[in-house]
Design a protein that fits this description.
Layout: H1 2-20, H2 29-47, H3 52-56, H4 58-65, H5 71-75, H6 81-98, H7 101-112, H8 117-132, H9 137-158, H10 164-185, H11 194-207, H12 213-239, H13 248-261, H14 266-283, H15 285-291, H16 299-312, E1 314-316, E2 321-322, H17 334-352, H18 355-361, H19 370-384, H20 390-407, H21 412-423, H22 434-440, H23 447-476
Antiparallel strand pairs: 1-2
Length: 477
C-alpha cells in the first residue's frame, strides 16, 4: 500500500522533472517528451499506483497535451486488430465457462492419466496447460484449484498410510503445478497470454512483420510442451517427490465430479463446435488464404466471425437462448484490452519520434556476441517479470529490444520472441502472476518453497529459450 501511495505522486513528479530538464544532445524535444511520458507510465505500472488499465489511458491524454501527436494518432492503436483478436479469444473462453465445457475437458484429461499419485499430478499439469492455451491463465487456475483441493482433502482424510511429508509434497506439487502450467500453457498460442498479443501487434505495426497464429504455434507449442515436462520433472522427481504410488480415491472423486456434470448439454456441444472450428481456422489460415485469394483472411477476422456466431447460434429455439448473451460479457476483462491499446500507443510514439532508432544506433558498434546480448535481454526480461506485470514489462521493453536488434543488424523478431517468452515464465514469487498468487492463497505452500522451485525453473527457461533462439527461430523467421 505504501509503495502505491509513493508511486501515485512519484509518477507525475518524474514526468515534471524530465520535462523541465533540457533534452540530451542529439535528441529532439518531442522525443524527450515521449521519454518523460514513458517514465511516468513505467512508475505507475511498476508501483501499480492506479489500476494498470488506467495507466494505459495516459497516452490518450499526454500525447496531445505535450504536443507529441494528435488525438486521432494517440487513440488509433487502441483499435488495433490484435486487440480484437484477443477480445474474440476472451469471448470464446467466456462461452466455454458459461456451459462448463472447460471443466469437463479438465476432468477428462485428469481422469485419463490414471490412479498413480504422480500421474494425477501430471493430469492436472496437462489439463491446466491445455485450457490456458485458450482461456486466461487466471480463469484456468480459479477453475482447477477447487478440483485439486478436493483431491488433497480426500487424500488427507481418507488415507492414514501416508506420512505428513508425503501429503505435503503431493499438495505442494499439485498447487505449484497448476500455477506454473497456467503460465506456461498460455505461451503455446497467440491468445493464450497478454504479452504475446502485445508482441504480435508491435511487430506488425513497427516492423511490418505478420506473426500468424499457426506460425506462433509451431514455436510456442514445443516450448510449452518441453517446459511443462521440465517443470513436472523438477517438482515431482527432483525437489518434492511424494512416493505415494497409487491413489484410487482421487480417481473416484474425478468420476463423481464428471457424473455430476451429466451428459453434454446442447450448449456445450454448440460451443465445442465453434471452438474447434475457430481453432482449426486459425491453424489452417495459410491454406485458407490460398483457397480464397480474393478474401483478406486474418486471425482477427476469424476471431470476430466466431464472436458473432456465439451470439447467433441458438441453444434453445423456443426461449431464444443463444450460446452467449450480452449480459455474459460483463466478465470480459476490458481492462486488458485497454492495456494492449496503451502499450501499442506508447510503442508507436517511441517509433515515430525516432527513439527506437536511436537505441539501435547505440549498438551498431557492439563488440559482444549477438547471442550473448540476446541471452542477457532474455535474463533481464525473465527476472523483471517476477516483480512487475509481464504485460507492462513487454510494453516497455519490446521497443528497446527492437532498437537493439536493428542496431546489431538482426531481424527484431529474433530478439522479440525470446524476450516475450521469458516474460511469461514467472515462477519465483506469489505476486509475479495471478496464478501464483491464487495457489499461494490456498495455504499449501510457502514463499521459500515457491522460490526454491522457481529459481531452478527460471534458469531452465532461460536455457530452453536460448536453444530455441539459436536453432529454431532462424528456421521459422
Amino acid at each position: 500500500m505504501l509503495l502505491k501511495r509513493i508511486g501515485l505522486f512519484l509518477g507525475p513528479l518524474v514526468l515534471l522533472i524530465v520535462l523541465l530538464l533540457p533534452a540530451p544532445g542529439g535528441l529532439e524535444p518531442k522525443a524527450w517528451r515521449v521519454i518523460a511520458m514513458g517514465a511516468f507510465m513505467l512508475v505507475w505500472w511498476v508501483t501499480e499506483a492506479v489500476p494498470l488499465p488506467v495507466t494505459a489511458l495516459l497516452p490518450m491524454v499526454l500525447l496531445p497535451l505535450l504536443g507529441i501527436g494528435s488525438m486521432k494518432a494517440a487513440t488509433a492503436p487502441y483499435s488495433n486488430p490484435i486487440v480484437f483478436l484477443f477480445m474474440g479469444g476472451f469471448m470464446i473462453a467466456i462461452a466455454m465457462e458459461r456451459w462448463n465445457l472447460h471443466r469437463r475437458i479438465a476432468l477428462n484429461i485428469v481422469r485419463i492419466t490414471g490412479t498413480n499419485a504422480n500421474r494425477i499430478v501430471l493430469g492436472f499439469f496437462l489439463a491446466t496447460a491445455s485450457l490456458s492455451m485458450w482461456i486466461s491463465n487466471t480463469a484456468t487456475t480459479v477453475m482447477m484449484l477447487p478440483i485439486a483441493a478436493s483431491v488433497i482433502d480426500l487424500l488427507t482424510k481418507g488415507e492414514s498410510d501416508y506420512s505428513p511429508k508425503q501429503v505435503r509434497n503431493f499438495a505442494l506439487t499439485l498447487m505449484l503445478g497448476i500455477a506454473y502450467s497456467a503460465n506456461i500453457g498460455g505461451t503455446a498460442t497467440i491468445i493464450g497470454t497478454p504479452p504475446t498479443v502485445v508482441f504480435v501487434g508491435f511487430m506488425k505495426d513497427t516492423y511490418g512483420v505478420d506473426v500468424s497464429f499457426a506460425k506462433w504455434m509451431v514455436l510456442g507449442l514445443p516450448f510449452a510442451a518441453i517446459m511443462i515436462a521440465l517443470t513436472y520433472w523438477v517438482l515431482v522427481k527432483l525437489l518434492y517427490p511424494n512416493g505415494m504410488g497409487k491413489f484410487e480415491h482421487a480417481q473416484q472423486l474425478i468420476k463423481t465430479e464428471l457424473h455430476e456434470l451429466g451428459e453434454m448439454t446442447i450448449g456445450e456441444k454448440r460451443i465445442l463446435a465453434i471452438f474447434i472450428g475457430t481453432a482449426l481456422a486459425w491453424i489452417l489460415r495459410q491454406p485458407l488464404d490460398d483457397l480464397f485469394p480474393n478474401i483478406a483472411i486474418s486471425d482477427t477476422l476469424i476471431a470476430m466471425l466466431a464472436t458473432i456466431l456465439l451470439f447467433v447460434v441458438p441453444v434453445n429455439y423456443t426461449s431464444g437462448e443463444f450460446v452467449l448473451s450480452w449480459k455474459d460479457t460483463h466478465r470480459l476483462p476490458w481492462g486488458i484490452l485497454l492495456l494492449f491499446g496503451g502499450g501499442l500507443s506508447l510503442a508507436a510514439a517511441l517509433e515515430n519520434v525516432g527513439i527506437i532508432g536511436l537505441v539501435g544506433a547505440q549498438f551498431e558498434a557492439a563488440t559482444a556476441s549477438s547471442f550473448l546480448i540476446l541471452l542477457g535481454l532474455t535474463t533481464v526480461s525473465l527476472f523483471l517479470t517476477e516483480i512487475m506485470s509481464n504485460l507492462a514489462l513487454v510494453v516497455v521493453f519490446l521497443p528497446v529490444v527492437g532498437g537493439i536488434a536493428v542496431g546489431l543488424d538482426i531481424p527484431p523478431i529474433l530478439y522479440g520472441i525470446p524476450v516475450t517468452l521469458a516474460a511469461s515464465c514467472a515462477f519465483m514469487l506469489p505476486m509475479s502472476t495471478p496464478p501464483n498468487a491464487i495457489v499461494f492463497a490456498s495455504g499449501h505452500l510457502s514463499i521459500p518453497q515457491m522460490m526454491k522451485a522457481g529459481i531452478v525453473l527460471n534458469f531452465m527457461a532461460i536455457l530452453l529459450i536460448a536453444l530455441i533462439a539459436k536453432f529454431l527461430l532462424p528456421l521459422l523467421f
